[in-house]
Amino acid sequence: MTAGKESRTAHSVAIAQSLAQSDIDALLASSSLWDAPDRVSVKSVTGQTPEDFSHNRRFSVCFLPSGVGREWLGSLTRLDCDTFVECSSEIDFADLAPLIPTNGGRSHALSVCMSTRSAYHLPVARKFVTALRHRGLIAEKIAATVEMAVQEAFANSLIHGNLELDTSGHLSMDSFTELGEETKRRLASSKHGARVILLTARRKKNGHIVITVNDQGNGFTPPSDSCSTAVAGRKTTFGRGLPLIKSLCHSVSFSRSGRSIELQFDQDKADLLTTSDIFVSELDGNKDQVPDTDIRNPQNATILIADDTMLSREIIASYLRSDGFTNLVFAKDGEDALDQVKIHNPDLIILDIIMPKLDGYGVCKAIRANPDYAETPIIAQTALEENEGRTRIFDDGATDLILKPLNKAELIARTRIHLENRLLVKQLQAYQERTRSELTMARDMQENLNPTPENYRGTGIDYGLRISATFQMSSELGGDMWGLMPIDEHRLGVYIVDFAGHGLGAALNTFRLHSLIWSDQLHDREPGEYLENLNRHLKGLLPIGQYATMLYGIIDRVESKFTYASAACTSPVLGNSLTGQARYLDGSGVPLGVVRNARYETREVPFTGANFLLLYSDALIETTLDDGQFLSEEKLLSMLRETIVESKSEIDLAAQIADQFMDRAPAQLADDFTIVSLQSTPIPCAI
Amino acid sequence: MNYKTETANGTTKVELSGRFTFGDHSSFRKLIEEIRPHGSDTYVLDVAGVEFIDSAGLGMLLLARDEGEKTNTSVVIRGAQGQVKRMLEVARFDTLFKLED
């Protein structure tokens, strides 16, 4: 960007609605975020909870409410944003500012900054690691190790750094109790409790991930390396952190007089996510678009001939030219070959094995190590007697082998075959690229079938309900959908649908069903009758073998009941919002689209001012979590109970469950994930 | 971290669940105060439901052991899985506790 006098950098800022405007203005105007706040223009969007911000919008920074709770911690995985900052007049960022480095500074792939008071009670390390996983910055297989190390570093910085608590020496129960009391006092004080903790992560060029944890305590002198890394022994109860961290990381270093710890993790590049994660795809931009015009015809291909003897190069060249290949480049040794590959990105390489500086094996390995050239065909030339060498060159990545002395017909035949393959692969890639962008459009359309947060919240308020929903599409298109249908002033219809399978077919079916649902205005029928009618229509539209599960229900605020019918939907959960006790309702029934005259039973349960209802797609209970198991029925109920019991104020139940699920589920889900909660608010507004 | 306790035949069984980390100070203290008066011969800490433990959590387990020693109560850690199991191994807790599957 040209830095003209008047030019301002535009930034989108996501802001928690509960924040006071004066605090927001103060933070924006300070130099805590940017070096030169006067050169920044800000467009802010507020949201009651992280659900309110669009998936498709990119934010420079998100202002977390003062006293961050679990729901806002969830914004780390929900928002396309790299910097999260707690906004509070008590906080002084001091030497940690500016949090968003401008020109020249190292920009972070993720940074999270909050007060000690907020951070102490939150699983910050876990959410931070989940967010890195979802952004494709760390591989799934090292996530558990990273989390352990970050947890230790984070605890250390909070407790020893910011809170200045001494936990060394042998702890007795009495001193443990005393420590607990002192912790409470210090968290409440503004000297300790308002100190900031900052976690950052960035990826280095070599693929290593670097995570720093920074505090505002007094610092300490890091122990010298002679300090043993043995973690065992029981002299101290709490001082095991550092050796443990060292055993988990590639390297550990300190700066800011011990107030910053930097952890580096090595990871296999091959294991990184390469798929279309929403954040990553944005970062990568158009980098890997395949120009599909460059080799329409094999004759236009660029061929690199790497051979140390000029005569050989000339012979090969003359053979190729005679067949119409004229786009030839040459290399006279191994190193030269690598240089030429970089300059010309050839479509095919004819490689001699015995060459000075770097032999053919080395060249092969080096080329294959670069993902840009992973598909480039390499034909190695070898003499008949080198039996061992022939196996080895294939191991090192050669595509084919040609025997010396060269036979003209054979050379041309092999060259043609590999170029044609290459051409097909490239065309296929270009085709996939086009399909991918069309799929993205279809995904957006499909997401728009679901109500927006504004819409469902507003509708909820009209009926005395707090409604929360989380929807995450699988890597491709999916078949999930949900919606609300106001019937009259005290009855609200709600539905959730899951079409079998995913991909284009399932997505098209959701469009079909959506238009059926919204073209039929008879929503006030008994749910059973409603599904029967819908099924008859749908059966006529759906190809044989395609079906959907669906639940349709009506919450009646006057008669305090929930009536519903289910077409093989996951069992809805009905619970008590105060005690957290919950049970499964009967979700049995024939799937939609299977038989024309399917019957659906209307079921009825009481639904009062103290109830909540949870609807979800089967991805919630059929995704393999980090313990290698599905979320069991029992486990979901206890998760609900604990979430309700542990929360001090009103919460968005669906969002909380989704956040806990995402912590433990793979970043790329195999199926669509939908979860919706409808919670009675204590004082129903509309009636 | 959440827990449930149950005492029978001189054994107090404690089922721990959730994440057991430095912030669980007060719930752990409550737990110790709750089981101390039972006067059991054995505390069985069932950690099968614990999904994550940090070094402070390990420290608290040691504290439970110290408590036990005062009254000649032996402490057994049962059912560690995944990350918890790995942490117990790294910290060589097999030398300090009786570990059961």
Question: Can you offer a commentary on this structure?
Answer:
The complex is a heterodimer of chains A (687) and B (101). Chain A is an alpha/beta fold. Chain A has four domains: 1-107; 123-281, Heat Shock Protein 90, CATH 3.30.565; 298-427, Response regulator (Rossmann fold), CATH 3.40.50; 448-680, PPM-type phosphatase domain (Phosphatase 2c, domain 1). Chain A is 35% helix and 22% strand. A nine-stranded mixed sheet of chain A has the order 2-1-4-6-7-8-9-11-10. A five-stranded parallel sheet of chain A has the order 13-12-14-15-16, with helices on both faces. In chain A, strands 17-26-25-22-23 form a five-stranded antiparallel sheet. In chain A, α6 (140-162) runs antiparallel to α9 (241-248), α12 (334-344) packs parallel to α13 (360-369) and α15 packs parallel to α17. Chain B has 101 residues and is α/β, with parallel strands linked by helices. In chain B, strands 1-2-3-4-5 form a five-stranded mixed sheet. The radius of gyration of chain B is 12 Å and the shape is globular. The chains are: A alpha/beta (687), B alpha/beta (101). Chain A binds chain B through residues 120-121, 123, 126, 144, 147-148, 151-152, 155, 158-159, 167, 171-173, 176-177, 179-180, 183, 231-234, 237-238, 240-241, 244, 247, 626-627, 638, 642, 664, and chain B through 2, 17-19, 21-23, 25-26, 29, 32, 51-52, 54-56, 58-60, 62-63, 66-67, 81-83, 87, 90-92, 95-96. Chain B: Pfam families: STAS_2.
Q: What is the average of the pLDDT values of chain B?
A: 90
The third-level CATH topology of the largest domain in chain A is Phosphatase 2c, domain 1
What count of structural domains of chain B?
Answer: 1
End-to-end separation of chain B in angstroms reads 21 Å
Poorly predicted runs of 5 or more residues of chain B: none
> How many individual helices of chain A?
20
Overall 3D shape of chain B: globular
Short overview:
The complex is a heterodimer of chains A (687) and B (101). Chain A is of the alpha/beta class and 687 residues long.
